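can u do me a favor
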């Protein structure tokens, strides 16, 4: 049975994601062919191949895909919530709260799960803080939420600067790499992949309501959409996605801004298509960016956030020029 035309882009993006993952797993200090990867997946292959693929490269590749997908879907949801195509997952200060939590844990000498847990707790604290301040004693509007997020983000930035100024020189490199986005210490990809899948399944039935909400809350209410519960749901889901992504890889910029904007120019503005496309395209983009970060100055590695910025800035400027 032929695949209907609206879903052909999703199939193409899924195929691109698989090819990017194979490329990422293949490239490294020891090259791996596709036949080597298939042998390891089948349970054969040498111990060195199994260690490189199953314990090092594949978890990092899946973590990159999960992080990119989380950020892209969060960016798309934020742009619907704020009715602003230039909104991104970090616009409400979530990354700042996560960064403060992670840096405090690093300053205390902890590592691994405690750093990730502190980053997630910081992001959730930032979510509650922004929502509480924006809501106040009455209701909140997208503009009020945005302005509150910008101010809170500036406050987090000041705290981050204070922490870095108090940090011993021996611990600064790890902190700076985390702030720029780094996948080398991503523990496991499965929580991020599960959250990404669950959120996509939850928001897909809401696609029609999101399409109407993107045109304005008054029009959505006139067409029978429960605007306030829907906006709360979008905000909480976008916050959860962003907090999970920042916990996994630090602050990786431009993915949540560029990917939804680019896909809307190509696929239109139907959220039922844009949201799953964002998950696939964002994941593919970050897998390719992380592959570049590993090989550009090998054996040294660049923070993946540097690569996404180098790709994202000119790409976004070009998209703005095209959409004039």
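np, heres the sequence
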């Amino acid at each position: 049975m032929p695949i209907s035309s609206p879903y052909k882009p999703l199939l193409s993006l899924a195929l691109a994601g698989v090819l990017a993952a194979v490329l990422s797993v293949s490239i490294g200090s020891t090259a791996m062919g596709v036949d080597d990867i298939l042998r390891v997946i089948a349970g054969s292959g040498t111990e060195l191949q199994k260690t490189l693929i199953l314990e090092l490269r594949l978890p990092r590749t899946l973590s990159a895909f999960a992080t990119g997908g989380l950020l892209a879907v969060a960016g798309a949801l934020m742009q619907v919530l704020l009715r602003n195509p230039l909104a991104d997952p970090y616009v409400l200060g979530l990354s700042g709260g996560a960064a403060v939590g992670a840096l405090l844990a690093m300053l205390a000498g902890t590592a691994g799960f405690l750093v990730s847990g502190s980053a997630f707790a910081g992001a959730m604290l930032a979510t509650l803080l922004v929502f509480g301040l924006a809501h106040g004693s009455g209701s909140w509007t997208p503009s009020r939420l945005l302005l509150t997020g910008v101010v809170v983000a500036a406050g987090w930035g000041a705290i981050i600067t204070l922490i870095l100024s108090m940090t011993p020189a021996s611990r600064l490199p790890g902190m700076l790499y985390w702030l720029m986005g780094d996948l080398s210490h991503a523990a496991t990809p499965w929580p991020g992949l599960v959250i990404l899948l669950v959120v996509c399944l939850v928001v897909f039935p809401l696609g029609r309501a999101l399409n109407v909400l993107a045109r304005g809350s008054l029009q959505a209410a006139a067409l029978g959409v429960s605007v306030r519960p829907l906006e709360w749901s979008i905000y909480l889901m976008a916050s959860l996605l962003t907090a999970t992504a920042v916990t996994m890889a630090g602050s990786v910029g431009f993915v949540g801004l560029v990917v939804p904007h680019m896909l809307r120019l190509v696929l239109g503005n139907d959220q039922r298509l844009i949201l799953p496309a964002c998950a696939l395209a964002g994941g593919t983009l970050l897998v390719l960016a992380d592959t570049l970060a590993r090989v550009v100055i090998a054996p040294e590695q660049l923070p993946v956030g540097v690569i996404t910025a180098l790709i994202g800035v000119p790409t976004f400027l070009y998209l703005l020029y095209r959409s004039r």
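The chain has one domain: 5-322. hope that helps!!
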